[in-house]
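In these records, each integer encodes one residue's backbone shape. Here is one protein:

___
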Amino acid sequence: EATLDLAERRRIRSAIRELQRQELERDEEALASKRFRPERGSHRQDDKENWPRSRCLEEEQQMALAALSRQLETITDVEELTKLLRAAGEYEERKLIRAAIRKLRAEEIEGEALSLCLRGG
């Protein structure tokens, strides 16, 4: 009798897991359909008035990011980059600074590994 009860419990658990999996898939599909819903035509029409201004701002931002990128290439101190990261306000700026920090740390690790190999060899 105990083995029948255990087998039934297993079947129930597997059925519950299957239902949960199906529900997750439905939720993901619903999210995907919302995320990639096309824009409304009237909204695009209203936005056309702001295109020149937004394009100019976008170009300015791209130039500022390019300048920041050149500045980050000259910095070799993680602490200095961390200070810049804390002071940065825009997402794209923080993204560039975090990438520079990762690059510096990778170079430090690579240098340490190389020095260990040279000492050991």
Notes: The radius of gyration is 27 Å.
